[in-house]
Every structure is written in C-alpha cells, then in structure tokens.
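Q: Could you fold this chain for me?
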Amino acid sequence: MADREPTSPLVVGIGGTIGGISSTERALRIALDGAAKEGFRTRLFGGADMARLPLYDPRATTRTADERAFVDAVREASAIIIASPGYHGSISGVVKNALDLLEETARDERRAYLADMPVGLIATAYGWQATGSTIAALRSIVHALRGWPTPFAAAINTQITKFDDDGGASDPAVVEQLRLIGRQVARFAPLAAANA
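A: Sure. Below is the predicted structure, expressed as structure tokens.
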C-alpha cells in the first residue's frame, strides 16, 4: 500500500480467503488504493493474516500477537473496508471470525466496536445470488458493530470479472466501483471524526 506519514489517517482493509491471494483480496487492494489516493495510509489484513487468527474465544484471558495487531489496527483506523467472498449465500468464516474479534473493543472509552466509523463493503462470488446476500449480511454486521456502511457497496460476479496480478480487472467499471468505495470511506472519515 502507499507510503504515508505516520500521522495520516488510516484505512484498514479486512478480507480475502485462505490459500493464496484471491479475487476478494485483489478487489480489496483496489479499494484501498482508492483511499490511498485520497491521502490515507492503508493496512491490509488479507487471507493469510486472518488464517493466523485463532477461532474467537470470548473467555480467553490472553490474545496472540496476531490478534492484538489486528485489534490495535482497527482501534487506530479512521475507516474500514471489509471484503468477503460469498460462501453459501453469506460471508466467509475467516472474515466473520476476524469481525468477532472486535468484541475486544466493546469497553473502549474512545470508540466501542466500529462506532460512527465509515465502512466500505465488497462481496465477490461466482454468480450474482451470493453477492447480494453477502452484502446484506455485511451491512447487518456493520450496523450491529455501530458502524456506518457507505452508500455504495460493490457486488462482484467473479464468473464475469477477472482480476489480474497487476492490480486491475477485466471490467474497468468494476475497478472504478472499487476505487469509489475507497474514496467514500476516506471522504466520510473526517465527518465521523468531527462527531466523535
């Protein structure tokens, strides 16, 4: 992601799949690039990062270094972008597990969960049906975490749109939609900060 001053606001990206860089993670990278072009620092927690998070145990008295790094990044963030593949009509288990870990922020004085934070949403699936239900599930989760889903969400049918290793996709309109998500979270973040 783009190098920025450490004082620049941060957008955290959460998403991908276990087992290599997926279409979901590639889509998320494009959206984060949109935020970076607005002057934000970005940090990606992709499939490999989420694979290192143990299953969330609310009774655990300690957290791993990977769990702490993830929660600390979200605490520092001014905005979030969540990308999930559509598995059987909903979000993937690794994305849900990462979001469950945000229970660690429940008693934070500065901001519990994702309170008042802009959150961009991306769903990828091999077909249209799961993209819509996955976006709906993500919106519901973000609302439960007190966040503000941005007005636009990207639903990407990977049967039609193919991503490449160079940060692009076969459909320029999809690339622009993903960059729009990055721009929206970046533009709404100062509004959230003003109301904090």
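A (continued): The chain has a mean pLDDT of 92.
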